[in-house]
Amino acid sequence: MSTAPDTRLLKQVLATVDGDDPRLKQVVSALVTHLHAFVNDVRPTEQEWLAGLDFLIETGQRWCGPHRNEFILLSDMLGLTTAVDDVNHRGPDGMTPSSVEGPFHSPAPPRELGDWISSGPERDRATPTVVHGRVLDCDGTPLPGAVIDLWQANDTGLYDSQDDSQDQGNLRALLTTDAEGSYWFRTIRPSSYPVPTDGTAGRLLKAIGRHPMRPAHLHVKVTAPGYRTLTTHVFLAEDPYLDSDAAFAVKPELICVPRRRESPGDQERWRMDGPFEEIEFDLRLVPLDWTADDGEQTEERQ
Ligand SMILES: [Fe+2]
To answer: Where is the segment annotated Disordered (predicted)?
Structure first.
């Protein structure tokens, strides 16, 4: 039996891909081409192929619903969500890189600059933290009136939607930058946490010898008129999982070093009652009209 790839079959299938939508035709043709290459490379047995299909069936039927999408988790843990993010968010030097949104975003309560965004039991036990910085364009011009949507896990790695001890909206905020483009808020240090492991994605992680942990982080989504919306993470330095994030979302520019602050002067400046950690992070947005030197439109495919 020949081991050469069956290009005749591939050509036959590709010849059937037609329709009125040229983009769809491109996508389906590429998908078919890559899948045939996969089969010719891996040469799965029929039992292996059916096991793969059963894995996808179980993912959809048992682990997807109104409050959970296991396919997104699979996309995250295989680096595909980050790959899609990367090809769609190129920008100039100095921009804050984007990073995946993840599954835990929900509407946040508007708050004032300086507010505590932590009101659950974590406030009494976790490390008090001040987060501040500015929203700028890539040339360093401050952007007053930018809206920052924040969400984070608590010190046990749980979001409000996963934890009955937290009120809805806890550790979330909508903040608007001041006349200098500055923002600040008081919170607690978030913890690293595992992605859900009870479904098919967790089974696959275990089978390929990977841990499910995500390094400690804050999520931010920043909007300002005339600029691209920036969705990204702020990661805390020295987290043991920074080099092995289960979702492959870490980028060096997004890692921030929390600084320990104990002096009365620092406490007074940031309205804190004792020692705390300070996180400073500027967010640099890309103008809507920015294009790469090659002229490629990279924010949204036209
Ligand atoms: Fe998260």
So the answer is: 94-126
